[in-house]
Each structure stands twice: as C-alpha cells, then as structure tokens.
Amino acid sequence: MSAAQDYSFRRAAPDDLALLAEWQARPHVRAWWSREAPFTVADLADPLVSRWIVSVDGRPFAFLQDYTVHGWPEHHFRHLPRGSRGIDQFIGEPAMLGLGHGTAFIGARLQALFDAGAPVIATDPHPANDRAIAVYRKLGFEPSGPPEETPWGLVLPMLATRPATGPRP
Hints:
The protein is α+β, with helices and mostly antiparallel strands. The protein has helices at residues 17-25, 27-30, 41-45, 101-115, 130-138; strands spanning 7-11, 49-56, 59-68, 85-91, 120-123, 142-143, 148-150, 153-155, 158-161. The chain has a domain at 4-118: Gcn5-related N-acetyltransferase (GNAT) (Aminopeptidase). The model is unreliable at 1-5 (pLDDT under 50).
C-alpha cells in the first residue's frame, strides 16, 4: 500500500465516462454499487455532487463522490449540520482490492473534507457489505442507527465527526 500522499483526486470529466462504465460493469462493483445506469455528462456537471477519479502513482483505479447531504429534501442524512458531506466510492480495478488502498484513499479524502470545514461526513454502505463497514470503522465511522430502506436501497447509516482541534478543557 502507498502512503496517503501518493493518492491523487481529479474531477471526473466526460473523457472518463467509458472508464466509469467499465468499472461499474465489473461484478465486484455491481455487487454493492446501487447506481445501475452509467454516469452521464449531466451527472458530472451536477453541482451537488463532486465526482473524483482516484489514482495512485498516476494510475486511475477508483471512483469517489462526495455530496451535500442537504441537496435533496428527503435525504436520510438531512438532519446533519450544515456543511456535512456524504461519500460513496468503489475501487474499479480488481487487482487493487484487499491491499489497503480503500482505507488510504478514503482517509485522504476525509481529511480534505474535514480540512475544508465539514463538521460530519456520512456514508451508507449496504448492511451486508462487511468489507466496506470494516474500512469505515477503521476510519472512525460509527453506525448512527439501524439499517434503513432509502430511495438508493437498504443502507447502514454511518457517521464520522471532525476531530477536535485545539486544547481540551
């Protein structure tokens, strides 16, 4: 596994649509990624969602999106404080699974979101996705309630809170 600083995030662009569709078609992604339709140019332009191609040592291998949880009136994380972000991601390249890259690149993005002022970061894996849940727990996420059915499928809501800074009383 590479150090977190070896990961780069660049905005997904229309030239990435074929790569994203290829990754989304892979069985290990389809097993957990709730989005069935391939991404479109309009998806990439959505101002509520930041979509990223993740690379390590210059090699694209994963997708990550972060979004405002207040962008949809009935979103299951709408109760979170203003500025909170939700995240979703997948590793598209099967050879990169099980090597610690998920923990490292998600951790790098979490740090960037907290540094930008997000008070809480939310995620919502399928309750049976033990691998994802274990990664999120390593990164400080905790379940914030029981599994629930959402417009995006059955999820386990999980939250990570910005680490405290400064002296403690």
